[in-house]
From TrEMBL:
Family: Belongs to the dynein heavy chain family.
UniProtKB keywords: ATP-binding, Cell projection, Cilium, Coiled coil, Cytoplasm, Cytoskeleton, Dynein, Microtubule, Motor protein, Nucleotide-binding, Repeat
GO cellular component assignments: axoneme; dynein complex; microtubule
InterPro entries, sorted: DHC, Dynein_2_N, Dynein_heavy_linker, Dynein_linker_3
Protein name per UniProt: Dynein heavy chain 9
UniProt keyword annotation of Acetylation present: no
Domain Dynein heavy chain linker: 36-480
Organism: Camelus dromedarius
An example Gene Ontology molecular-function term: ATP binding
Subcellular location: Cytoplasm, Cytoskeleton, Cilium axoneme
GO biological process: microtubule-based movement
Amino acid sequence: MLDARHIEIQQMESTVASISKSASLFEVSVPDYKQLRQCRREICQLKELWDMIGMVTSSIHAWEATPWRNINVEAMELECKQFVRLIRALDKEVRAWEAFTGLETTVLNTLTSLRAVAELQNPAIRERHWRQLMQATGVSFTVDEGTTLAHLLQLQLHHFEDEVQGIVDKAVKEMGMEKILKELQTTWVGMEFQYEPHPRTGMPLLRCDEDLIEVLEDNQVQLQNLMMSKYIAFFLEEVSGWQKKLSTADAVISIWFDVQRTWSHLESIFIGSEDIRAQLPQDSKRFEGIDIDFKELAYDAQKTPNVVEATNKSGLYEKLEDIQSRLHLCEKALTEYLDTKRLAFPRFYFLSSSDLLDILSNGTAPQQVQRHLSKLFDNMAKMQFQLDASGKPTKISLGMYSKEEEYVAFSEPCDCSGQVGNGEVLLLSSVCAHIQMASAFRMALVTSPTSNPEFLLQVEVWLTHVLAHMKATVRREMTEGVTACEEKPREHWLFDYPAQVFSKPGLRGPHPLLALFLGDLCHLPGVALTCTQIWWTTEVGMAFARLEEGYENAMKDYYKKQVAQLKTLISMLIGQLSKGDRQKIMTICTIDVHARDVVAKMIAQKVDSAQAFLWLSQLRHRWDDEAKHCFANICDAQFLYSYEYLGNTPRLVITPLTD
């Protein structure tokens, strides 16, 4: 029609041209024919517009036949944008026409729909998302291989741009969840327990796999994050299922390791130790039942290597809980039993339960217990045992070694067999009268079942013997040392006795609270040398007596004697000495320097009375000839020496802060 009208206008224009030519011959004025020019302009604009409409329509129709999975949205979008530019390049007068408005709207809607189609091509889109799209648009269709762009354009996606974007965003998030769940499935399908044999029984024990625990914790965190997502709805059941499985696996693995650890600890005690079985028959019987049940679970679990399957068996957690509760009863009984042993020999309080159990299980073998002596005594590392005719060590101890390998023979051989009678209990009480241990030992004898012959062969009995012999030996050596100090030159006398005889015990070593349990109140802070301190106290007292008699230089003369003694010791250090003797002399030098400084201070302050506070505030040792005991005095306090063997150890320099 536009072409026909175009021809008509051309004919009119030809007629106008002919008329104008004739009129010019006759010099006649010709009308302007504005309407004809207007028609020419409008017909051209209209032709251009409809040509554009035809081009756009044909392109869109061609696209509509394209299968939707093969749609090249990017190319179509570029072409649509080109259409928009061409449309907007048309004459402004055209823009008021409905055809122009319709064309522009069609192109813009197609462009918007193509963007939506591009979103829908996301691989995250599933069948459920198409159903949600149909529900949003109100148009039903089936997405298959025959679906084309025309079917999608029928949805008028340009009206549902936000809905499409929301569905696609949801699909992308759900695809992320789907990926996590697939990885979870792959991980736990191949996750298996690793086992190792129990050293004593060969039973399969669950191996602590750090990687498994780490993966389990990470996956639980991942599932918790998924549960907090607003897109969880579709996967809620699956995620909840995995949460339950992994939570159960975590709980079972945790309690399994706890039960396994406790069982492994108690198995060697209640099954492998006849001493404990004899002392705790009911709990040993209870543990035998636990042993059967736990082994049954362990062997059954080994048949199902997969972690999730093995841990999610019905009733497994409840069975482990029951075993755990029964193990706690056995542990409680064992703890109470160990407490009775600690009551009988309080130094056991300074041992861990495992060390104490090791001692009890080897109680009749003193050579095996020796490795724990340094934990029970301040500085006793091992003992010397008497040999029988075949050269094998017996249970008779002849002496003790310090950690520095100093050897001190016992005053009498010590019986370490563990046998003790009522008479020996009284003897031990007499020897250890100044400590609380004897009453605790008697209490243990009274409260323990006398019908059990094993009680007469228990470790706390012979350790009590060792303690008594140690104290008796140190006391004997000190008695002889104090007496011999008057009879021999100091530089000769100090080599005749162990370093302990010269030293005052201090709170040193691994048991700073030992005095609390044993009543060793003499273990005062500071460092001194017992015999040297005894004679230092005696000689200072003699100097004070001479001052009272009127000899004014008595204290100064004693100071000169101290300096001479120090010079003698220093000259001895320069010579050839064994390692032990050198340590003895260095220790004496350390204390002698302090003693010299105290005397120098009293001289400087002109102290002339033994009742002066400067002297009374010093730690002073004295030997009681009647009681045959050493006492330590400071101000008006007096403490009995404890006779703990300390060996030949170095002493710290005494400063005003440690004095």
